[in-house]
Amino acid sequence: MSTNVRSGSERCPCMSGLPLDECCGPILAGERKAATAEALMRSRFTAFAVGDRDHLLASWHPRTRPRVLDLDDTLQWYRLDIESTSGGTPFDTTGEVVFTAHHRRGGIRGSLHERSRFERLDGQWVYVDGVVS
Known about the structure:
With 133 residues, the chain is an alpha+beta fold. The chain has a single domain (20-132), classed as Nuclear Transport Factor 2, Chain: A. It has three helices and four strands; from the N terminus they run H-H-H-E-E-E-E. It has helices at residues 25-28, 37-50, 53-58, and strands at 76-87, 94-105, 108-121, 124-132. Strands 1-2-3-4 form a four-stranded antiparallel sheet, with helices on one face. It is globular, with a radius of gyration of 14 Å. Residues 36-130 form the YchJ-like middle NTF2-like domain. This is UPF0225 protein IDF66_00325. Belongs to the UPF0225 family. It holds the Pfam family YchJ_M-like.
């Protein structure tokens, strides 16, 4: 995990209400796989929030993964709203998650709304792509 990761007893940045060490922390650390597409989406948001490029790249489908991932370190990702999910259960091979991720840069707030697609690849969920609206 990135050196920006907070204490595991703090609330997880994905807004699940759980402590980081009970939610996305083990997924980012590679100790547990995401059981659902939504769980992977939450872990990816947390990775953006803490600057964990390795998890973002590892959880990206090889077909669509960028060679280099430049994160904007001036953005502070602070809230994730999951709006809907389709498929993406432990019994599915594909899934979709619609979400809004909120961020701040300085004193200015912004958000990103995306419909993300996920696939199960070799037994684990990976991010395929998304449509930003």
